[in-house]
Amino acid sequence: MNYRYVGKSGLRVSPICMGTMSFGSWSDEKESFRILDKAFDAGINFYDTAEVYPVPPRADTAGMTETIIGKWLKTKNRDALIIATKVAGAASGWFVPPIRAGLTAIDRHHIERAIEGSLRRLGTDYIDLYQVHWPDTVVPIEESMAALDRLVESGKVRYLGTSNENAYGLTKANTVAHYEGYARFHSIQNNFSLLNRRFLDELALVCRRENVSLLPYSPIGGGVLSGKYNVEKIPAVSRFGEYLQMDNARQRAMADRFLNERTLAATARYLEIAREAGMSATTLAVAWSMHFDFVASTIIGARTAEQLDESFAALGVTLSAEVLKACDAVHRDILYPMG
After folding, report:
1. Which residue among the candidates 47, 53, 159, 182 is catalytic per the annotation?
2. Less Cβ around it within 10 Å: N or C end of the chain?
3. Count of CB atoms within 10 A of residue 153's CB?
4. Is 53 noted as a catalytic residue in this protein?
5. What are the tens digits of pLDDT across the range 107-158?
């Protein structure tokens, strides 16, 4: 396994990270343990979660994923694993955090309450990588970075990261950290896939110049790049099949973003590229995400342990120049299919 450093930190992580957002909703505890054990046996040392998981976020299930992981951690050597979790962030994001009463913010009060809850549920006394799940555009970044720095100073957190952030937000945060002597963001976790290359527009340059690593999520476009939606009828037992049946405007809007005429057209072409290259489209998508120099670890997810095989196959794949060129051609013809 070719372990990679996250930013300027001392964290060395596997090039695939096990995402856990389905634990407690689409995957029960038994299946979650099967997924975690299979990842561990494959050499994966990096596991990502969040205080609001599982998805879709609900008040009655929030925190369940961390609890499941905490039970599993008791069966392993904690110090051999890299555990990442997230503070929910501002309620103006794509979800309204249900963990704590009222609207949350990335201020000292909510950060301190969030870390204590995550530590308790995970059954550990430290988090390797603590991330801001959604940026707060109201609370001054100086206050947020000061509060996060205190967690590092206390030993409850080793390193910091952010998520769903833009180039300005990442640069501003780390500029404040530099001048105030605070701990910096070593990573950014954003949506990045063959269907969503927006990260390459500006953020990739920031990461390269400032030595910040991307931890891309949804490398197979929420399952779209697997090809399972390129059928006449959307599978009822699938993420977006279920979202479209919900009486929830946010979930339906997310489904429309990931699943539309342009994403399906692009996926059809990626399926053909993968077939000609002798691999599954899932393997192609994960391998494509992993090949960038600013990527430390690609976050994958699964409902069942069996679904991991095609993603893990990417660990042994180096995409040829011809395959990369073919993928770029799809992007030029169907530009930004997710908007």
Report:
1. 53
2. C
3. 11
4. yes
5. 999 999 999 999 999 999 999 999 999 999 889 999 999 999 999 999 999 9
* Radius of gyration of the chain from its Cα atoms, rounded to whole angstroms: 19
CA–CA separation, 154 vs 31, rounded Å? 35
- In whole angstroms, what is the distance from residue 331 CA to residue 87 CA? 34
Q: What are phi and psi of 314, to 5 degrees?
A: -65, -20
Q: Which of 14, 2, 16, 23 is nearest to 305 (CA)?
A: 23
Which residues on adjacent β-strands are paired with residue 162?
132, 188
Distance (Å, rounded) from C-alpha 72 to C-alpha 270?
A: 36
Q: How far apart are CA 166 and CA 163, in angstroms?
A: 9
Nearest 10 degrees: CA dihedral of 234, 236, 237, 241?
60
Peptide bond into 97 cis (omega under 30): no
Distance in angstroms (rounded) separating the CA atoms of residues 85 and 218: 17
Locus of tokens 């910040």: 212
Whether 55 and 62 have beta carbons less than 8 Å apart is answered as no
